[in-house]
Amino acid sequence: MGLATADPRWRNAGAKRSNMATKDKRELNLVDLARKKIYDAPKLVSEARDLLGQRLDDIRREKAAFEETTKILNEVHFGRTVKLNVGGKIYKTTLNTLQKDPDSMLCAMFSGRHELKPDEEDGAYFIDRDAELFR
Q1: pLDDT in tens, 25-82
Q2: Domain count across the chain
Q3: Among residues 31, 49, 65, 115, which one has the fewest Cβ atoms lying within 10 Å of its Cβ?
Q4: What is the DSSP string of the chain?
Q5: Containing domain of residue 19, as a range?
Q6: What is the pLDDT of residue 17?
Q7: Are residues 12 and 51 in the same domain?
Q8: The pLDDT of residue 25
Q9: Which residues pair with 81 in a beta bridge?
Q10: How far apart are CA 110 and CA 116, in angstroms?
């Protein structure tokens, strides 16, 4: 029997060397993987920056379109003064007031479902009714 097989310390030393070799291989694999990821990182960051820039441009366009639509709605529908010519008497009000009662004729007229054209001279919408009863 040789010294290495007789002495358990030598047998353990061989196992330890084998475990250390496996551990070293694992660590080398991890180091290689880390190097690859570090090498790829600038490319990935650049791609992400490009995608975010494109998305930001899309959002800015959407925001501009939304703001334009809001401006048009505020000017045309919600903040606008409406002039009515009822049986020759002129009334001025807001679109909000005309639309307060959803079941009324005025709400239906000014809902946007009907094409209304104001008078070319004074811009009033003509309603052929008795002015006194209209009040």
Answers
A1: 787 788 888 889 899 999 999 999 999 999 999 999 999 999 888 777 666 655 578 8
A2: 2
A3: 115
A4: --HHHH-HHHHHHHHHHHHHHHHHHHHHHHHHHHHHHHHHHHHHHHHHHHHHHHHHHHHHHHHHHHHHHHHHHIIIIIS-EEEEEETTEEEEEEHHHHTSSTTSHHHHHTSSSS-----TTT-PEEE-S-HHHH-
A5: 3-74
A6: 64
A7: yes
A8: 79
A9: 94
A10: 8
pTM over 0.70: no
Q: Of residues 50 and 8, which shows the higher confidence score?
A: 50
My answer on whether 85 and 65 are in the same domain is: no
9, 66: one domain = yes
Q: Tokens in use for 15?
A: 């196992």
Q: Could you give the CA distance from residue 127 to residue 93 in angstroms, rounded to a whole number?
A: 14
- Name, of 22-26, 35-39, 110-114, the range with top average pLDDT: 35-39
